[in-house]
Amino acid sequence: MGLIEQAKQALRGKTNVFISFAHENMDEVNLLRGQARNEKSMIEFNDWSVSEPYESERAAYIKQQISERINQCSVTVVYMTPYSAKSPWVRWEIERSLELGKRVIGVYKGTSKPSYGFPALTIDGIKCIPWSSLAAELGG
Q1: Which of 24, 70, 83, 93 is the most buried (most CB within 10 A)?
Q2: How many domains does the chain divide into?
């Protein structure tokens, strides 16, 4: 069996999730990714960590790469923090996900929805849930 077939077989039945987050939240997001390593988890995370400024010389290339990753996924999960609420990359990833017809879900740490504003997640149909509820929300 070839490498591509092995990868397809490993992903079969899993929900491929693009996770959007601010670079400053890398440690917390790594904990979220760790949940997908659980053999019983039906979630497979796919993302691109960007620490480069949004208006950098490489922005067009980075956007192309991120678009490809988003397109491969069935849903975009946005890790909600004050950093991500202000991130132009996160805002762009949400907009791009919606343009590509992907479902977008905001997730937050703890049990209470954050009180700070997150304008990019106020679009109708975007649900915001605790990250502990993500697997159930995705049916996994």
Answers
A1: 93
A2: 1
Phi and psi (nearest 5°) for 56? -70, 170
**CA proximity to 108, closest of 79, 88, 84, 85:** 79
- Cβ neighbour number for residue 42 with a 10 Å cutoff: 13
DSSP 55-84: TSTTHHHHHHHHHHHHHH-SEEEEE--HHH
- pTM for the full model? 0.80
Domain of 99?
Answer: 3-137
Determine the Cα–Cα distance for residues 122 and 17; give it in Å rounded to an integer: 20
Q: How far is CA 97 from the centre of its chain?
A: 10
Distance (Å, rounded) from C-alpha 83 to C-alpha 95?
A: 17
Instruction: Calculate Rg over the CA atoms of the chain.
Output: 15
Decide: 128 and 106 in contact? Cβ < 8 Å: yes
132: domain CATH number is: 3.40.50.450
Tell me the C-alpha distance between 68 and 61, whole Å.
Answer: 11
What confidence tens digit (pLDDT) does each residue in 64-96 have? 888 988 998 999 999 999 999 999 989 999 999
Residue 78: which of 96, 101, 100, 94 has the closest Cα? 94
